[in-house]
Amino acid sequence: MLYYLHEVQRLAMAPSRAVADALTFAANNPMNAFSHTPVGKAMGSAAEIYSRMTHRYGKPDWSIENTVIDGKTVAVEAETMIHRTYCDLVHFKRRTARQDPKVLIVAPLSGHFATLLRGTVEAMLPDHDVYITDWIDCRNIPVMSDLFNLNDYIDYVIDFLHFLGPHSHVIAVCQPSVPVMAAVSVMSGWGDICRPDTMTLMGGPVDTRVGQTAVNKLAKDNDRKWFEKHVITTVPLPYPGAFRRVLPGFVQLSNFISMNLERHLMSMNELFDHLVEGDGEAADRKRVFYEEYLAVMDLPAEYFLQTLEVVFQEHALPRGEMTFRWQQVDPGKIKDTAVLCVEGELDDISGVGQTRAALDITPNLPRSMKKYHLEKGVGHYGVFNGRKWRENIAPTVKAFMREHSKAPAKA
Question: What residue spans of 170-279 are helical by DSSP H?
Answer without folding.
Answer: 177-190, 214-221, 224-230, 249-259, 261-277
